[in-house]
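Lab channel / #folding
Pinned by the channel admin:
"Please post every new chain as: sequence first, then the structure tokens as a reply. Keep commentary short and put observations after the output so the thread stays searchable."

First post following the new format, from NK:
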Amino acid sequence: MRVARGTLDRRARHYHAGGFPALVPAHRQVTPRTPVEVLDLAAALKKENPARTAAQIQRILRTTQGWSPTDRTLQRHFADAGLTGASGEKSVFGRFEATRGNELWTGGALHGPEIGGRKTYLFAFIDDHSRAIVGHRIGFAEDTVRLAAALRPALSARGVPEAIYVDNGSAFVDTWLLRACASLAVRLTHSKPGRPQGRGKIERFFRTVRDQFLVELDEERVGQIEHLAELNRLFTAWVETVYHRTVHSETGQPPIERWLGSIPRPLPLPSPADLREAFL
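Reply from TO:
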């Protein structure tokens, strides 16, 4: 992209005057008439069952929330979010693979088993080139705190990627993630709603998690896990001793070996001060 000299000079003055926080865009003063959380819930209901009409979702919202925007408002929101399912020729996408390790990480979240009556969520980041899992954490909520708990150790141990690709889940669109990536010069990209191309590798990994890890956690075994730390310990052991050491069907190499063979030596790592600044 092209940036005017005046823009660069203005940003430089802001940075020298107030540091990195001075570069963060100001919050818009105009707020939408319909609460964002209501529109997000409507979009989630549409994604859950694309056959639902705006009128049906309006009835569900009225029943569960006591209020709903008009069906016309919902239709406009679905159109803006790409959830209308318009007819036409399907796009054809070629296969993409990063050329080296840490060129691109893809992040995602997976619903896990219940521990002590509470639902768990797995956040994970996969290296696009090697299919190595560079960061992961299982938590009791699908929020930014658990996402940070997966991403910060990944950056500390695996280095800083050139880009991170995530979906539009609430944790991934939070402004803190944008700020953290900007602070570390990481390009953050979100997939377009209703167009999940490029997310096949993380989705395949989650399928492997279901088929090879979660399948072994039957009700009896899950009942024996009393603490979340134990579930994280078991998952880490499976990733490092099974998944990372097994030859991947697409690359022909174990993920960890392919990653180690494609990164610079020594691997540049962010300083503790840089990480503190990024994760304030």
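NK: Confidence is low (pLDDT under 50) at residues 86-94.
TO: also worth noting, The longest helix spans residues 228-243.
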